[in-house]
Design brief:
475 residues, alpha/beta, Dihydrodipicolinate Reductase, domain 2, Rossmann fold, 3 domains, 6-stranded parallel sheet, 24% strand
Length: 475
């Protein structure tokens, strides 16, 4: 499998594909032996974290698979990549959502995704019910290429809880360093700088993105700030890792993507689950067709928060609610496994401030598969996920979006595999490592999380919001 992936990567001339299987992480703390097929691994004993979502206590992973086993055969080394026709380079299979009633961008202007279907070029929405290949990461920018002999120098924009978690994890990544932080106040920037030993402390976001020593900017503002902060960094010529959800809606996502492509700068959503080690093995299993055709998947993300109108998850002006903050994980998981849905059905119960407190969704696909997703602010869930196929199933342990274990179970109940592997950190360093690999290769987006897929995920989120009547005050 590795040899095949190497050959395909060379054919596609995409250096980023050389990262096909994450390096084994160093283990720390107490360890125990578990079985992965016939291979013995040593893994740390982990304790459950707190429920504070900003801290993402037990970070986890998503999987990727096509709409049944026919798509799985096209995956390169389990990373969800296919070889596009002719010289187009690397592409990722996407499904078209014809029945959602979502707007279809016109081709042109650099901000619009290009798709290939056979020898024809088409824009999103042109071929209802067809699976399209969207070209990704073909363009390279010499200006954005980073030298291999020094770390990627990060600037962190905003100083909230997720910024702290990112800085903690970056300390474990040898090819990254935090050199600058930007906040709306000098006191906040100084406090963050003192905690993490950051040399450059800026009292404005503009000063941060203008810092010549910064290669890449991590946007960690509350959700409504992602769009403006990303555009600010892009206009300054910086690479950008924009916190999840990528934006408040698909229109903002399209504008951000267009700006980055027009400027020739790297941009990626900080959906850190995509870059966790255990998903490599899961994707290999899916690519091998072990599950048969995928029939349905389930994923949930529920946490309990004390009712507080000032807390960001209950505050409409901060993009609060379960869907954008917690529900993005199950929705992105469904996109990894099955692509874009052809039909969405959603129901919700509101919180006392008007944001969604509990939202449940059914995504339907051309293959006949379903994704059943739930998110809530009102109850602490075990946060599991599972993929069910005609031949076998994958059960991912609790906190599915964090580094965790999974089992492969055959239709007759036989356990085919148990996977559990050591991981140091909470999971956020993987997204920084992927951004660094892309920058060193001169890529403008990641083939593991292309901007076109991020856009379709935001379209799905928009449709869920439309059905449940969730709106936010203008920024």
């Amino acid at each position: 499998m590795r040899r095949l992936a190497t050959l395909l990567a060379r054919r596609a001339r995409c250096p980023a594909l050389s990262f096909l299987l994450p390096d084994r992480a160093k283990t720390c703390g107490r360890v125990r032996r578990v079985r992965v097929s016939s291979v013995s691994h040593r893994v740390p004993q982990t304790a459950s974290g707190s429920s504070a979502h900003d801290q993402h206590p037990r970070p986890a992973g998503h999987l990727a698979q096509g709409q049944g086993s026919h798509r799985g055969t096209n995956l390169i080394a389990g990373y969800g990549l296919t070889s596009a026709p002719g010289p187009a380079g690397v592409s990722v299979c996407c499904s078209l959502p014809p029945s959602l009633g979502l707007s279809s961008p016109r081709h042109g202007g650099g901000s619009v995704p290009w798709y290939s279907h056979g020898d024809r070029q088409t824009s999103y929405g042109a071929l209802p019910g067809k699976r399209l290949r969207c070209r990704v990461a073909r363009q390279r920018s010499n200006r954005m290429t980073q030298p291999d002999d020094r770390p990627i120098r990060w600037g962190i924009l905003a100083t909230g809880g997720i910024a702290h978690a990112f800085a903690h994890d970056l300390a474990l990544q040898p090819d990254c360093e935090v050199v600058a932080v930007g906040s709306r106040s000098q006191a906040s920037a100084d406090a963050f700088g003192d905690e993490f030993g950051v040399p450059h402390r800026h009292a404005s976001y503009q000063a941060l993105v203008s810092d010549p020593d910064v290669d890449a900017v991590y946007v960690s503002t509350p959700h409504p700030g992602h769009h403006d902060a990303a555009l600010l960094a892009i206009s300054a010529g910086k690479a950008v890792l924009a916190g999840k959800p990528f934006a408040m809606d698909a229109a903002q996502a399209r504008e951000m993507t267009g700006a980055a492509r027009g400027q020739g700068t790297f941009l990626m959503e900080a959906m850190w689950t995509r870059f966790l080690p255990h998903i490599a093995r899961v994707r290999e299993i899916l690519a091998a067709g072990t599950l048969g055709d995928v029939v349905y998947l389930t994923a949930e993300h529920g946490q309990w928060f004390a009712p507080d109108p000032q807390f960001r998850l209950f505050a409409p002006e901060l993009g609060g609610g379960a869907l954008l903050d917690l529900g993005i994980y199950p929705v992105s998981f469904a996109s990894l496994v099955l692509g874009a849905p052809t039909r969405i059905t959603a129901v919700s119960h509101p919180a006392f401030t008007g944001v969604d407190a509990t939202t449940s969704m059914i995504f339907q696909y051309d293959s006949g598969a379903h994704a059943v997703l739930t998110t809530t602010l009102l109850a602490a869930s075990g946060n599991p996920a599972a993929i069910y196929g005609t031949a076998a199933r994958i059960e991912i342990d609790g906190w599915f979006y964090t580094p965790t274990a999974f089992r492969v179970i055959a239709r007759d109940g036989t356990e085919l595999e148990r996977f559990e592997e050591p991981y140091e950190g909470r999971g956020l360093r993987g997204e920084a490592a992927e951004a660094g690999r892309c920058l060193r290769a001169g890529l403008l987006e990641s083939p593991l999380l292309p901007l076109d897929e991020t856009y379709t995920i935001m379209q799905a989120m928009d449709e869920v919001r439309r059905q449940i009547g969730l709106s936010y005050p203008p920024a």
